[in-house]
Amino acid sequence: MSNLIRPALVLTFVMTLLTGLAYPLAMTGLAQAVFPAQAAGSLIDREGTVIGSSLIAQGFSEPGYFHPRPSLAGEGYDAALSGASNLGVTSGALIEAVGARVAAAGIEGAVPVDLVTASGSGLDPHVSPAAARAQIPRVAQARGLPEQTVRALVQSRTEQRILGFIGEPRVNVLLLNLALDQTKP
Amino acid sequence: MSPTDLLQILLFLALILALAPFLGAYMAKVFEGRVAFLAPAERAIYAACGTDASEEQSWGRYLGAVLLFNLTGFALLFTLLLTQHWLPWNPAGMTALDWDLAFNTAVSFVTNTNWQAYGGESTLSYFSQMAGLTVQNFVSAATGIAVAVAITRGIARRQARTLGNFTVDLTRGVLYILLPLSILVALALVWQGVPQNLAAYVDASTVEGAQQILAQGPAASQIAIKQLGTNGGGFFSVNSAHPYENPTPISNLIQMVAILAIPAGLALTYGHMVGDKRQGWAIFAAMGVLFLAGLAVTYWAEMQGNPLLASLPVDQAAGNMEGKETRFGVVNSVLWAVSTTAASNGSVNAMHDSFTPLGGLVLLLNIQLGEIIYGGVGAGLYGMLLFVVLAVFIAGLMVGRTPEYLGKKIEAREVKLAVLGMLSMPVGILGFGALAAVLPVALASVQDAGPHGLSEILYAYSSATGNNGSAFAGYGADTPYQNVMLGLAMILGRYAFIAAMLAIAGSLAAKKIAPPSAGSFPTHGPLFVGLLVGTILIVGGLTFFPVLALGPVAEHLAMLAGTRF
């Protein structure tokens, strides 16, 4: 027994130094040297102020902006408290919540599913192209822009599948809204 | 099925099929001591441990070494979590964990479960993530691999008394397999956008003028090993659904491959080490059959969407999207969910709790079958070998011959041990689960009403006993009762299998190898693969189908009838 104790203690100590300190610290140094923007969280800086991260959804409720998917991260879009509804498909609470969002969306016809269901993280930065298209009339009207202009903007901001088949087509809501502000504040 | 969905699935399967033989052969070399590019580091570690690398251990001593090493790891992690407020790298000012959450989290990471009763960005300091969780991600995975390798040696050797040296196997697993792969994967993840810094959480002023705090941290280094080691514990609360933890379809693909690559490779390492590659491919094939069947059912179920939302009206051409991320869609969420439950990984990129009833049923069953569909690193292989012993025994009974496996007689002792190990699953899942379904203190954790509530209980105890770590996360697991009971289920599931299989390996190692004769049952063809799959489904089915009927199946029928709870 006794000659099993020393390896257990020493191995734990050595592995903590190697995999718990040397490895993550070396990776931190390496990452910041090779991919500094990503390593720092893909932050968006506007005139010296961080206005968010291009990877993280933030709340938009004004009619002149495209809206992201509903969020259950904290009180909504809390990027220090990611979370989901975790409701099952037969949950009455889920069906009521989705019904309320459909009513609030003010979109004619069937609403694209991603626009009225909460994402897994509560921080999903994207909506589907269909969900973006469904919001074009509202945004165009609020901004006094022709729908054509807004549609062209959505089109140019739609990310396609990688190599034509990996991932899903999607639109980054924050980046789209920033582009919209640049077109006509 | 759309052509793009099919192509994504095929690409993933092709990557696994291409990597597994390469990794399998490489890992066999590592554990036969034929890889030595870090020999000086190895020697230094053995010297510090006072270990003679050529001195081998009996199964009992090997088990003792595993248990003592894991106990030390538990003690250290438990202490770190209780004292993190005094330790460095805590820019968000996290306080100490309560004792029960610290116990649960420490047990969970030491047993390779990585159940998340903790909240990541809202509970843990950077130091706890690095020096605590990341370390156990490495060594619990290496422990699993070491045990699988020792058991393989037991099967391959003839009239031997020893299975290898745990210190050596663990060190080699970390130095030559897990660490180099983690460095590559971590760097690729940062490239895709996963943060890797020690900075304070960032205060952002959003476009509409709100304040948003963006959690940061050394995420990529933790996430790389969480996938490669089939650990699965998230850096952030929602795991790989978080856009920082898994920002793009490419990072998603890298992580999915990282989940299955080593477990799939180990099945083939086994073939190399027993000197008959066909044996490894037979096990690989049995795992593959179960994997594809589960994938087909879950994909179909999720694409149906939620019929209760259709009339609101909601356009569900994209499938059931509650709890799923836009960039992954249904196909990548399903591929991930089936992989993570098959492989005992437990990381998620979509919320399993919001899957359709039949989709969720497959995930539950994957875990309940014993985490042997590729399974946890190492744990999947030795779990599968336990079923191999049973399958060979049943085949022997059917033809009235003494069962043999690779020339070794499978006798009463081995079969008894196999059954004993296997019984940990029903005890942990059904026994502990039944308690949680009747005790008021435990029932408070259930979120959903109706049959889905039972599924939540079942999933929690399946995940803990199977050392998976994923959850139906609506279940409120961070209570003293759940933390302790789920922790005990993890210990039971992990060490009952390890002890039983090491004991079987010890007794097989001592046996003679009889040359194959006309009467031996070949264990590499389709017949054996079919028998093995059948054994797994019969054992799993008899044990768990009754309770699955009360949970997911009942919920499915209720859903079709338009019932809401």
Automatic annotation (TrEMBL), chain A:
It is a single-pass membrane protein. Keywords: ATP-binding, Cell membrane, Ion transport, Membrane, Nucleotide-binding, Potassium, Potassium transport, Transmembrane, Transmembrane helix, Transport. Transmembrane segments: none annotated. It is found in: Cell membrane. GO terms for cellular component: plasma membrane. One of its GO terms (molecular function) is P-type potassium transmembrane transporter activity. It comes from the Bacteria. Belongs to the KdpC family. InterPro entries: KdpC. Part of the high-affinity ATP-driven potassium transport (or Kdp) system, which catalyzes the hydrolysis of ATP coupled with the electrogenic transport of potassium into the cytoplasm. This subunit acts as a catalytic chaperone that increases the ATP-binding affinity of the ATP-hydrolyzing subunit KdpB by the formation of a transient KdpB/KdpC/ATP ternary complex. The system is composed of three essential subunits: KdpA, KdpB and KdpC. This is Potassium-transporting ATPase KdpC subunit. Coiled coil: none annotated. NCBIfam families: kdpC, PRK00315.1. The keyword Plastid does not apply.
TrEMBL record, chain B:
Pfam families: KdpA. The chain crosses the membrane at residues 6-28, 62-87, 130-152, 173-194, 253-270, 282-301, 372-397, 417-443, 484-506, 527-550. InterPro entries: KdpA. GO terms for molecular function: P-type potassium transmembrane transporter activity; potassium ion binding. GO terms for cellular component: plasma membrane. Its main location: membrane. Signal peptide: none annotated. Keywords: Cell membrane, Ion transport, Membrane, Potassium, Potassium transport, Transmembrane, Transmembrane helix, Transport. It is found in: Cell membrane. It is a multi-pass membrane protein. The keyword Amino-acid biosynthesis does not apply. PANTHER family: POTASSIUM-TRANSPORTING ATPASE A CHAIN, POTASSIUM-TRANSPORTING ATPASE POTASSIUM-BINDING SUBUNIT. The system is composed of three essential subunits: KdpA, KdpB and KdpC. Belongs to the KdpA family. Part of the high-affinity ATP-driven potassium transport (or Kdp) system, which catalyzes the hydrolysis of ATP coupled with the electrogenic transport of potassium into the cytoplasm. This subunit binds the extracellular potassium ions and delivers the ions to the membrane domain of KdpB through an intramembrane tunnel. This is Potassium-transporting ATPase potassium-binding subunit. It comes from Oceanibaculum pacificum. The gene is kdpA.
